[in-house]
């Protein structure tokens, strides 16, 4: 029977063929380009570390880095806050809420919609003078003058953060709830008998046991957030107006490559983005597991 | 499985249940509970109101939208549709997106199952190294190879075709990883041995025994693969040039820069057409999708 093991290669061969050609090779080729001055046509000339030196002093890239962080950070705090509060409410044994399936579905719905449609929709909903959002808020008496959402740097960034929150809090809520449902009911019953209040139950039982799930949400959200592209691309003129406040790292990469034909430099931007993602993922991991040398619970 | 927390009812069911409770005089709803429900309902409205505005405005004329806000539908939907269709053919984008997403889902499902089975049930040289390498590559963000990918497609002459959007799906490390974990716990090697003794070939065993057992996990992953492909924007944006080949998300971007943008009613209608089918599909699949997200995040 031993000789059947060679079949293993047949089973994994198609995967590796496609993987090498369409994933590994492009990543390697991009790495090579990051050391050249390639412009999309003609010969690529090696320029050493020039692209990376430029990257470190490029104010646009640094600005894009901070923009991306601001937009992602505000969104993440809001999104996780909402998800955790909702999870706390729905997992509370004293108030047995009905309709979790309904609320879960409604809260999750925005996540399913194509981001480019979302961007386009908010582009016209948030319009300064003719947008339905301003008109509605004014009709409700919440604001007296229309807010120029997308034309002022701070409010433009905030708008994107809020749209991202709107899109993602339902998803985080579902994932957190999945983690909560994996926690044994015995803990909660014991806490109830011991007279723990809601906050104690939540902070002493739910949160510590949810650590692996929270880590998962944080890292996937960070990786996704650092790749923010569709919304700023379609909500603005494509280069991150107003005042470059919506210029994110991937938008910068895209424009450098496909708008200005600086392929070599754009390749360096891609690797810069990759290194940043790695560093921050490692930080999060260490921050959550560094202090206590405890094995994460396998759910 | 997961998601058995409280009430796993369908949308309408849970709404009905709630109203039943409210009309029952015996079971009083406490004030904090009422407050919580109010907040939840407000949140649900906030979640839904952009879509509601979209649907309402899709039926209103440009002038009506510019003049004021209402949640009452208008009567200009036919004109809006005609204006939109005179500039872009949204159904073509729909068809393109559907073709690509279906093929991507099939390719990803089949080849990932094949690879997962190979990794799970055979012993061969370099297996572990290859698996670890695959896991490491899983961490690499898609944009990293974007420029190299574009150059590769240019040199292969497959720019402005669907090949670069479809074929790479045959190598989906995350799906392989998920399916491998799944099949290791669900398919016992003795079953394979028994089939071998009965004279079944290796690929026959895979197709008739392994695939059916893996089907629930493949279905779970297929949902994400399909949604991911359907919503993908940057890849088709980079790879496709001809408007008639555009996928729905790229077409949406194209819509923004076109003459249609002058007519808000038509814009809203175009967006609505791109959104409503997904909402309808979600209405039927919501429970399944929600459970899949739970399963996907917990299995890791």
Automatic annotation (TrEMBL), chain A:
Residues 65-284 form the ABC transmembrane type-1 domain. Keywords: Cell membrane, Membrane, Transmembrane, Transmembrane helix, Transport. It is found in: Cell membrane. InterPro entries: ABC_transporter_permease, MetI-like, MetI-like_sf. CDD domains: TM_PBP2. This is Sugar ABC transporter permease. Belongs to the binding-protein-dependent transport system permease family. It comes from the Bacteria. It is a multi-pass membrane protein. The keyword Transmembrane applies. The chain crosses the membrane at residues 7-33, 71-90, 102-126, 158-180, 213-235, 263-285. Pfam families: BPD_transp_1.
From TrEMBL, chain B:
CDD domains: TM_PBP2. It comes from the Bacteria. InterPro entries: MetI-like (IPR000515), MetI-like_sf (IPR035906). Keywords: Cell membrane, Membrane, Transmembrane, Transmembrane helix, Transport. It holds the Pfam family BPD_transp_1. Its main location: membrane. It comes from Fictibacillus norfolkensis. Gene3D superfamilies: MetI-like. It is a multi-pass membrane protein. Belongs to the binding-protein-dependent transport system permease family. It is found in: Cell membrane. The chain crosses the membrane at residues 34-56, 98-124, 131-150, 162-184, 205-227, 267-290. This is Carbohydrate ABC transporter permease. Residues 94-285 form the ABC transmembrane type-1 domain.
């Amino acid at each position: 029977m031993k000789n059947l093991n060679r079949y293993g290669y047949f089973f994994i061969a198609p995967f590796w063929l496609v993987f090498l050609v369409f994933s590994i090779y492009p990543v390697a080729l991009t790495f090579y380009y990051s050391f050249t001055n390639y412009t999309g046509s003609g010969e690529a000339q090696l320029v050493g570390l020039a692209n990376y030196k430029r990257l470190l002093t490029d104010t646009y890239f640094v600005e894009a880095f901070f923009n991306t962080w601001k937009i992602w950070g505000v969104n993440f705090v809001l999104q996780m806050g909402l998800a955790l509060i909702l999870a706390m409410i729905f997992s509370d044994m004293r108030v047995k809420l009905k309709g979790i399936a309904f609320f879960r579905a409604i809260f999750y719905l925005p996540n399913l919609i194509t981001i480019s449609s979302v961007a386009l929709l908010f582009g016209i909903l948030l319009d300064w003078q003719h947008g339905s959002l301003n008109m509605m808020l004014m009709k409700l008496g919440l604001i007296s003058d229309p807010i120029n959402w997308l034309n002022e740097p701070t409010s433009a960034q905030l708008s994107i953060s809020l749209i991202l929150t709107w899109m993602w809090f339902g998803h985080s809520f579902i994932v957190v709830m999945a983690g909560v449902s994996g926690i044994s009911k015995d803990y909660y019953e014991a806490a109830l008998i011991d007279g723990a209040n809601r906050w104690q139950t939540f902070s002493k039982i739910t949160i510590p046991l949810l650590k692996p799930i929270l880590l998962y949400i944080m890292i996937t959200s960070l990786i996704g957030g650092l790749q923010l592209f569709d919304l700023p691309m379609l909500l603005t003129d494509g280069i991150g107006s107003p005042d470059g406040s919506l210029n994110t790292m991937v938008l910068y990469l895209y424009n450098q490559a496909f708008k200005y034909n600086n392929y070599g430099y754009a390749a360096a931007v891609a690797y810069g983005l990759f290194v940043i993602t790695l560093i921050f993922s490692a930080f999060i991991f260490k921050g959550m597991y560094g202090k206590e040398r405890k094995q994460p619970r396998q759910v | 499985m997961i998601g058995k927390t409280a009430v796993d009812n369908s949308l309408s069911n849970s709404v009905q249940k709630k109203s039943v409770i409210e009309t029952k005089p015996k079971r009083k709803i406490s004030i904090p509970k009422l407050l919580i429900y109010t907040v939840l309902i407000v949140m649900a409205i906030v979640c839904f109101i952009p879509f509601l505005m979209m649907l309402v405005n899709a039926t209103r004329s440009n002038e009506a939208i510019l003049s004021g806000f209402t949640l009452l539908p208008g009567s200009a939907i036919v004109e809006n549709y005609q204006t939109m269709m005179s500039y872009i053919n949204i159904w073509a984008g729909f068809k393109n997106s559907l073709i690509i997403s279906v093929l991507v889902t099939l390719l990803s499902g089949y080849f990932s199952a094949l690879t997962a089975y190979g990794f799970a049930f055979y012993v061969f040289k370099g297996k572990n190294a290859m698996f670890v390498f695959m896991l490491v590559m899983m961490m690499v963000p898609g944009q990293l190879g974007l420029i190299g990918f574009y150059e590769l497609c240019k040199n292969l002459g497959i720019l402005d075709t669907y090949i670069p959007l479809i074929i790479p799906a045959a190598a989906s490390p995350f799906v392989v990883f998920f399916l491998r974990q799944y099949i290791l716990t669900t398919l016992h090697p003795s079953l394979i041995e028994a089939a071998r003794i009965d004279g079944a070939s290796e690929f026959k065993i895979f197709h008739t025994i392994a695939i059916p057992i893996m089907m629930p996990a493949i279905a779970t992953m297929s949902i994400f693969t399909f949604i991911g492909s359907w919503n993908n924007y940057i890849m088709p944006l980079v790879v496709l040039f001809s408007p008639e080949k555009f996928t729905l998300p790229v077409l949406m971007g194209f819509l923004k820069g076109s003459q249609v943008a002058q007519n808000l009613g038509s814009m809203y209608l175009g967006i609505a057409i791109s959104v409503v089918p997904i909402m309808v599909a979600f209405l039927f699949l919501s429970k399944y999708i929600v459970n899949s997200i739970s399963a996907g995040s917990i299995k890791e």
